[in-house]
Design a protein that fits this description.
The complex is a heterodimer of chains A (249) and B (123).
Chain A: H1 11-17, E1 22-30, H2 33-48, E2 52-57, H3 64-75, E3 81-87, H4 92-98, E4 104-108, H5 117-123, E5 134-138, E6 155-161, H6 168-171, H7 173-178, E7 181-185, H8 197-207, E8 213-215, H9 224-248
Parallel strand pairs in A: 2-5, 2-6, 3-4, 3-5, 6-7, 7-8
Helix pairs in contact in A: 3-4
Chain B: H1 2-22, E1 26-35, H2 42-53, E2 63-69, E3 71-75, E4 81-84, E5 100-103, E6 108-116
Parallel strand pairs in B: 1-2
Antiparallel strand pairs in B: 1-6, 3-4, 3-5
Helix pairs in contact in B: 1-2
Classes of the chains: A alpha/beta (249), B alpha+beta (123).
Chain lengths: 249, 123
Amino acid sequence: MSEPGRTPHDPADDHQRGAEDQRTVTIRRRVLAANERLAGALRTEFASHGVLVLNLVGSPGSGKTELLRRTMQELQPGLRVAAVTGDLATENDATRLAESGAPVRQILTGTTCHLEADMVADSIAGWDLADIDVLFIENVGNMVCPSGFDLGEDVRVMLVATTEGEDKPLKYPTLTITADVAVISKCDLAEAVECDVGLLTDNLDEVRPGIPVLRTSARRGDGLGEWLELIRGRSQEKAGAAQGLTCTS
Amino acid sequence: MHELTVAAQIRSTLERELVPEADAVAVDVVRVQVGALTGLVPEALEFVWPHAVADSSLLGHAAIEVELVEAAIECGACGSTSTTAVVRALRCPVCRSPDIQVVGGDELDIVSIDVSDRGTAVT
């Protein structure tokens, strides 16, 4: 950047700037372009094998792992399921999910507070996607950072526990806006923590009009039927679309 | 927290692709646009930037200029167009209708850099 009142050849300028040559380069590049490219490639790969992919996002302790553990138990043997789960440290979640008997891998992110497409790609390497109907991605517990990172999923599921308070969707609009389905978890605790589940539902609909809201309790089994039907229906659609792809190609 | 992640992504994009393409040895200024839909706070990104690039030979002295791009919400119900720096709901801010189109606001772009071709600035 040249300063006013100076010519480009001002010797004083050379002295001050160490005789360097400075210029402005105009670029227009999306910062997350690499992640978006890889997520797109993953989406194509999942589609060609008819794999339905759900990305579960919610704060730490919102009940992602427990919902997933029950879900994976219930969906088998009708559907072939698999999961990858992200945490900064420990393999505890993978160990819990593996109780379902399905293939599970832990992604250790170190200091990264969300999953990125390359972590998912590395994690599923070696799995034959032809053997999987539904892949669950359990994101790192966080309601901010995961919202900006596409993982190639079909359905972004936002979990909010009754213990978190009714205004969570209003406090985290960026995630709420990008979610496809909302799951209210721990409904068995709603009365004990004086959570107004109706108000929580209204707040989700206020931020993201029309979003399907499922009220669940993984422990007691509330709402799981509706949740499982949603997954089965979407899986059938995805598998059907993949067969269409095969027939027309 | 999120802004530090983004700063690291800006750094890696510049180091891996943009600075080599620009054939430069050091970057003095990085200009970035963030849209209202990203939920990013420009001041927070500017705050964490020096920490994200402190050990970078290309970017260690680079300043960052972050511009917030507003989103425009066009309402199909009341016909209004509203601009907003923070999107709090997918509804018309005037009449609350969900029948809206959001134009822009998803930017997270590096728009330009000032680079040095020889040596680094002596101050």
